[in-house]
Amino acid sequence: MGIIKALKCRECNKEYSPTFIYICEECFGPLDVIYKLANNITKQTFENRSDLTYWRYFEILPVEHKKNIVSLNGSITPLQKADNLGNRLGGLRNLYIKNDSVNPTFSFKDRPAGVAVSKAKEMNLPAVGCASTGNLASATAAHASKAQLPCYVFAPFDLEHVKIAQALSYGAKFIAVEGTYDDANRLASVIGDSNGYGIVNINMRPYYVEGSKTLAFEVLEQLNWTVPDVLVIPVGSGAMLN
Ligand SMILES: [Zn+2]
Fold it and tell me: Which CATH number is 67-242's, of 3.30.530.20, 3.40.50.1100, 3.40.50.720, 3.90.550.10?
């Protein structure tokens, strides 16, 4: 039963049942989701699907029941061939740009935030939140609003308000932290753990990072399952490297 086999420590390989846990109790290593991949899944399984959201990859996303999916119905984002830029960079004939700015809240964070909020709903958590200075706050708040869950955004108190205006417009509550972004992260972690809140980029991280990989699956499909020679990836979010 279920899609997830276990959560597995990346450092010592200890396995845990897939519950509300995010760090190895033995070595404090990060935990990865291990799936019970059905042998009959092939690339054709996905390319023939009518679902154009990233939930088309449901079997390899960490939500057990489709009824728990919290989706804003963002579609597969465009893979734009950038011939002019390729020429300017010195004759790159097959340069593509993945345009994730057309996601529902205008950034790639809709992928991990949507998966994490869905998992929070599946685990019956009372609230969600994040430590963020912008895009992640908007993505988490929008999905929380859809799921009708309270959302708390932790950020330094002197953050320019325009950066979280979008998140507030979805109904999130701003927790202004006197300190740096690292301080906001720490406070979010403590409050999340003590109240059982799903802080998507901290205590929901094993599930959260799984959403980011859907960008790579889309690129593969859009290139007719050809693996690109080189990927250029922003690493403000380390999850993109997963
Ligand atoms: Zn470990």
Answer: 3.40.50.1100
